[in-house]
Every structure is written in C-alpha cells, then in structure tokens.
Amino acid sequence: MGEIALLGLEFYGHHGVRPEEGRLGARFVVDLWLQVPFEGKGDRLEETVDYAQVYALVEAAVRRRRFYLIEALADHLAEELLRAFPRLQAVRVRVHKPHAPIPGVFRDVYAETERRRS
C-alpha cells in the first residue's frame, strides 16, 4: 500500500453557519492523503488515481456546494472520493478554514476525517 498526498488545494467557497459566510464566501484549503495499492513495477496511470480528476472532484464540491460545517464538507469529500475512485483503499481529508469567524488571533481551524473501504 502506498500513500499519495495532495496538500494545500485552495478554493473559494461559501461554507459556514452564518448568513454572511454563505453570501460573501471565503478561502478554504483542502489536504488529502490517498491510500492506493502500488503495483510495484507498474508505471501507468491506470494503476493509481488521476490527480487531475481528484482535484476536479474536490474543486466542484468546495466551490459549487454549500455546507454549514467544514466537518460535513470533509465527510462528503471522503465519501465521494471513495465512490469515484475504486482503486482508493482509504482516504484522509482535512478541510482548513483559515478565516473562520472567531473573535481572536489564531493560526488555523480545520476538520479532519478518514474513511476506509469496507
């Protein structure tokens, strides 16, 4: 089993509980860790996952859908990735909300989930 990481995927989305978050939107960052069986000697795209397709799936969900909680967005992404890419054995998704409406100074807020194929 091998792991592929796609880190720092940035998108503008409209997620959050507050009405202004839905109206104005904000920047969200997604990190993915994808567990895929490596065939060892193979060097073909069919033996792994297409990173461009993974990116497109994540982009569509973050930019076109609305979730009140980043936890729900992370869960949705994990489920959709496993559904769309049969070679994936497990996925870990972290959704960062660097501009969360928190009164005070902070570096980051994120929600993380992990799913495995049954």
Q: What does this entry show, briefly?
A:
With 118 residues, this protein is of the alpha+beta class. It is 30% helix and 31% strand. It has three helices and four strands, in the order βαβααββ.
What is the secondary structure topology, with strand pairs?
Layout: E1 2-13, H1 19-24, E2 26-36, H2 51-64, H3 70-84, E3 90-96, E4 110-116
Antiparallel strand pairs: 1-2, 2-3, 3-4
Helix pairs in contact: 2-3
Describe the structure.
- With 118 residues, the chain is α+β, with helices and mostly antiparallel strands.
- It has a single domain, classed as GTP Cyclohydrolase I, domain 2, CATH 3.30.1130.10.
- Helices cover 30% and strands 31% of the residues.
- The chain is built from 3 helices and 4 strands, in the order βαβααββ.
- It is elongated, with a radius of gyration of 15 Å.
- The two termini are 16 Å apart.
- The model has no long low-confidence stretch (mean pLDDT 93).
Q: Biggest sheet, in brief?
A: 4 strands, antiparallel
**C-alpha geometry:** elongated
Number of helices: 3
- Proportion of residues in β-strands: 25-35%
Domain Dihydroneopterin aldolase/epimerase: 4-115
EC number: 4.1.2.25
Keywords: Folate biosynthesis, Lyase
InterPro entries: Dihydroneopterin_aldolase, FolB_dom, GTP-CH-I_C/QueF
